[in-house]
Design a protein that fits this description.
This protein has a domain of 137 residues: 3-Layer(aba) Sandwich (Rossmann fold), CATH 3.40.50.2020. The longest helix has 21 residues. It contains four helices and ten strands; from the N terminus they run αββαβαβββαββββ. It has a six-stranded mixed β-sheet. By secondary structure, the protein is an alpha/beta fold.
Length: 207
Amino acid sequence: MKAPANGRDMDEKYYFCHSKRKQMHKTMGNITLHDKEFRPYIPAAEIDRVIAEMAERMNRDLQDARPLFVSVLNGSFMFTSDLLKHITIPGTEISFVKMASYEGTTSSGKVSELIGLREDITGRTVVILEDVIDSGQSMAHLLSALQEQAPARIVVATLFHKPDAARCHVPVDYAGITLGNDFIVGRGLDYNGLGRNFPDLYIINQK
């Protein structure tokens, strides 16, 4: 039986794998998802910095709020994970809801709540975490549903914001990166189920 690797061997293997991954990342170019091509747009390091700064602001603003963070699936799973690693507010809780309004690369205009909130939010500070706010229809629907449960306050935080795509006005308390109205993937955002896993943000190549 082969002896287990010592600590140095483990470190060298990790360094090799990590370096190899970085090299692959640096040379990564356009990606194709289904029938669409996307090009690199915003690197992961910049997004990480924005998320850390947003969390720092929340830690100051909500330090006495005992907030319930509500993550809107599927898109915000990565944003939620990255953000909550930096949140140090006592009494922080996390829950999830699932909404659907996208078909292909455009919003269908129809909103359906697939998984509802089960926690009692009466008198609570609720922080909604979204991957992107564009038309605002999904967020407006969610805000209306939550307001009926009498929370003390609802705070809206989105990693990406597309104000030019707005069809209805929704309040945004924390907006990470403001974008134009181009279709994007990566960092939790998808095109028909593909692309969520990329840590960088990609923008569609218009033909």
